[in-house]
Amino acid sequence: MSAALKARVLTAARDEPSPTRAAVKRRNILISMLAAASGVGAFVIFALLTSDGELVRQGGEVAAHRHLERSVSLVVTTAGGAVGIAAIALWFALRRGRSMLGRPRRWLLGGIALIPLALFAWKVSCSLAFGDPMADWSDRPGLKCLSLSLLVAAGPLLAFLAARRSAPVHPALNGAAIGVASGACAWVALDLWCPVAFVPHLVLGHVLPLCILAGMGALLGQGLLSLRSR
């Protein structure tokens, strides 16, 4: 770390009073509640407006006279795995690691890349065992899923940035990791709502939103988490 950056870090730490652990805990609980409420609210509103209130959609018409259904075990398996990956993503994005300055660049880049790949691989590998959900749903390219992901993740993204507060080193990468974590949380709702596992649909409607959120998080992180913003 350069001498200039070290001086800015020390100056920022000296000028900003340190809150008590109890205050930090209360603040993080409140932010977590707001993030969850905003995401769940966006999901419910979207479902009510686009799918007659079906929060869990197990199937639909793939083509004329062809109806496919997801089994309950498939829904539980894919959504349960998504919950686990989302929890890891949140821990990775919101914790600083062993250093007070945050995680190294290579760890941040690795997490940003691996979390979307893990979600995609889990969805595909589970769906392959059941066959039908991998069918081509020609009338569902993934645009609704893209919109749902961004809508559900918007509130958590802002809340998690507020919870992180600052990242003296690599603020853009930390913001991108927070964006991916927000998208991973939205993936859980999306997995419940969307019965499609066709690979082109997943790439457009499920994976692309995480890339967009990573970019949004990087821009916001550079502006909100860096020492210059403070």
Question: What would the keywords be for this entry?
Answer:
7 helices; mainly alpha; two-stranded antiparallel sheet; single chain; 2 strands; 230 residues
List the helices and strands and how they pair.
Layout: H1 3-15, H2 21-50, E1 59-63, E2 66-69, H3 72-94, H4 105-128, H5 143-164, H6 171-193, H7 199-224
Antiparallel strand pairs: 1-2
Helix pairs in contact: 2-5, 2-6, 3-4, 3-6, 4-6, 4-7, 5-6, 5-7, 6-7
Quick rundown:
The chain is mostly helical and 230 residues long.
Task: Tell me what the structure shows.
Strands 1-2 form a two-stranded antiparallel ribbon. 70% of the residues lie in helices and 4% in strands. It is mainly alpha-helical and 230 residues long. It contains 7 helices and 2 strands. The radius of gyration is 19 Å and the shape is elongated. α2 crosses α6 (171-193), α4 (105-128) packs parallel to α6 and α5 packs across α6 (171-193). It has a domain at 72-230.
Structural class: mainly alpha
The number of helical runs is: 7
Share in β-strands: under 5%
> How far apart are the termini?
19 Å
Low-confidence stretches: none
How would you state the average pLDDT, rounded? 82
Number of strands: 2
H/E topology pattern: HHEEHHHHH
Record the strand order, biggest sheet. Answer: 1-2
The portion of residues assigned to helices is over 70%
Rg from Cα: 19 Å
Shape assignment:
elongated
Q: Biggest sheet, open or closed, and with what strands and sense?
A: 2 strands, antiparallel
